[in-house]
Protein 1
Amino acid sequence: MWKQLFRLHSSSSDSTPPFGYTKIPASEFNYNLGTFTISDSYPCIHIMGSHIKAWVYTEYGNIEEILKFDPNVAIPDIKEDQVLIKVVAAALNPVDNLRALGYFKDTDSPLPAAPGNDVAGVVVRVGSKVTKFKIGDEVYGDINELAVNHPKTIGSLAEYTTAEEKVLAHKPSNLSFIEAASLPVVILTAYLGLERVGFSAGKSILVLGGSGGVGTLVIQLAKHVFGASKVAATASTPKLELLRSLGADLPIDYTTDNFEELSEKFDVVYDTIGQSDKALKAIKEGGKVVTIVGPATPPAIQFFLTADGAVLEKLQPYLESGKVKPVLDPKSPFPFSQTVEAYAYLKTNRAIGKVVIHPIP
């Protein structure tokens, strides 16, 4: 459990801590500009300052060129339905690159902006209408209900960020912050995308891009949560064993085989790579294709994520039991100082699972 602690800012012995906090002598802590300190032996919450460190950009362009470290960003205010989170770990997503390029300029929030959707951290402040969380709770989630519609100005690539109560969930107790940060966008996209096409027990599925962030979760959810009769998935040769370990019955090496030419057809094809035209050739009569990379070739269904903390809570038993596991790229985590390098790596499309940033100051 996280202890709620109050660091004395003066030498006065009669300083009164806020309600619910324990007064601890300043000498017991390594005080660092009023920030939040995480320690395996003695985790604690410090009263924060008014400015934070973050990665921001002030104009649109290639994210690895425009993203700059800013040590003096104003800490974001919270609304009555929001919490303020001390970010412990954050994960990167392709949508971050699209936003930086200005693809959603008409519905974006004003620049400058700090990117980042996936977060895992600790609640340090709660809005007046928040009932689900309290100070000290370990949480995770996708902080933007709709990534392309007025996303947070200060995202998760900052010391602190805000999020509505409804998009967050309590962090599964068996997962590290690094593991938890890797999950929200991809597990929600995988689960809700499967729901969107009515996937259910006994059906077969082909996953295009099975070793990516979303693909690794689609395989696991289809197999271990929805009860698929058969799971096929595509990847390059070195990644086929990973697909098997996640639950794929039929790993397909896309470097040697064309999935659309297989004699076997599937009830559902989940396309994470933008090949909905070919995917339509791989479904049974009456089958469905769902894609997360547009434009979708009709009648394929393009899926857009709406973040939902209730779904994360619903999936918590599968995560805590180990039936569904986070998949981290071997290079993860990247330190906060190498966020630009992490984005450059993400753009190579060679990442396995998710790219995570940790620690965050």
Protein 2
Amino acid sequence: MGDSSSTGKNIGIWISDKKSHKLNWKELIKTCNAHGYNIVKLDLDIPFEDQGRMDIFLHKLTDVIAAADQGDVKASIIIGRVEQYLSNHPHITVIDPLNNVRLLLNRYCYYTILQDELSFQNHGIFTPAFAEFKTSDIEQNVEIMRSRGVKFPVICKPTVAHGSKLAHEMVLIFNERGLNVCKAPCVVQNFVNHNAVLHKVFVIGNKYHISERPSLKNFNASENLDPIYYSTGEVCKADSNSTLSILDPHDKSDITMTLDEDKIRTIIRILRRKIGLVLVGFDVVIDNVSGNHAVIDINVFPSYDSFPNFFELLIESIEDTVSRSGNMDISDDIVEDHTLNGLVNIGDSHASYSVIGMNIN
């Protein structure tokens, strides 16, 4: 797809077949060509050297990297080849650098990065307390929770954040008895009551867009409740009708919880400095008692549901990244040079439960 011998720069792109079917290739190619770029749709089973010249490498290799890190032989060979190719061609701009992407493949890793950011506290931003289980020993895990300040109810999540559908399967646990369903390695995290509203923030460079989604209703610790299994893809999708998102009558109060965009911009700046991704998304919920904003998840190259004018802004971000990287390795540039030329919210208001535009989540 695309002709590497034609004039202009070549963008080599790889996303999985499943995601590829959701991508409007015609519109992407049209937009790229209008800006002097050609698209080369890459095949991981063929050496990149045999697929034409590449100036920019745009990818979502998260599942392949995760599989390689878990010991999958084929995935390891593929990632090894990709890394060797990029090492041999340092002029190529990579969006996003593989080592930066790896930071978001492990939930315990990126929760720790967020927790260590002391400036969050000054802005009313936090990451709910969390702990990692590496064993199925309940007594030991209870002690780990206590030492980390984790209290019921908790959400149990696989430590590995990508690589399979299981990465998005969660369990809401209300008591010590329920910990027997935890499958190590996993992360347990305090559940924050947030009136069943999730704010998904999609970022492209210095542009961002906020989309409101349904989420889990309010819950409290209880010795009588059994664990609740759920998938974030089902409960939190825009058109979800899950009963888990319906507030109980006593939860419907006059308290108004308003998203603070100053806090959102602070989170974007911190993520850019700490993790250094051009294409990133994160989930925020608002504590229904304190009003503080909790960052509960971060995603590499997210769905960009409802993101207006996505392809134009993608090209703009690519050109900005190329100009900033110059002849330097982009992985160094993004982490060290975190200055954003202003942050711009694309859209007049927060999209509420809408799904339009590109979706390659």
Protein 3
Amino acid sequence: MATTINLACESDCKEIHQTFGNFSHLTQALATKSQIQRTQIREKYMEIYGEDLINCLRMRTTQLAKSEGNELGESSSAAAGSALALWMLDPVERDAVVAREALDQKSEITNFRALVEMFVGRKSSHVVLIKQVYQVRFGRILVALVASHKAHHADLSQHIAKCDARRLYQTGEGRSGAIDEAVVLELLSKRSIPQLNLTFSTYKHIYGHDYSKSLKNENYGEFEDALDVVVKCIYNPPKYYAQTLYGSIKGMTKDKGGLARVILSRAEVDMDEIQRVYRKKYGVGMIEAICESIPAGDYRDFLDKHIHFPSIAGTHRERPEHVRSH
């Protein structure tokens, strides 16, 4: 069995090497591979050719972008190459790269959305590994979210959720002036992601609207904007990702890497549910929307394959089995 797998992997590597300039073929060869298969191919490629396949993909992508005289996002082949390079990374490496790009000082703004998705939608063990791979100075909310992964408990507490919801109200829309940031940061750092989800659900039950609605105030600033992203990503992930994809597909956002990032990170997790939410909310399937907005080519083919990539059972988020009332 092991010999068969090794031979298949070696065959894949030789085929990839022989047709390296053809991104259409690379998409066909790599887009449907599982994480384990991708790792095996990367290791075998290094063994055979002495080169890192990901570095080769990046170099070829840069060459294409220069030869075509376009920005990366304007070239289908270059965009496909960039996405393939991300896809070939293991999830921890990929998140580290995304974090680096999100915090790139050359950019006009920090891509906070990408960072929030990472810290809300990953397992605690995964987040710890990201931190080890890429030590970097995060903003206050992100520091709190990292700390929240130390707070995972077996049970959820309805009592704590009610108390926290009331605290959020009393230090937010229940008073005049700005939100008490210290209270928000305390809750984000001390509660697990599932417990925070229950708190936001309880808030809506008590006060009749989502907590994120209370953040829509013209006098609020960057902290509230960042908090709004956190709340939406925690409270209803499929809806959040559907909205993010819609904005990226329609070109309504500065988050230029959002489309590939979300599709790649959710392809093996909950893309089926995201697609259902997308169709229900916008009245069109995600594939149709992408075909209408993105020119035919390697990049569109690559995205199409990952939208149809089989999701694993469950999600990366840890879900407690019980909810305590006290």
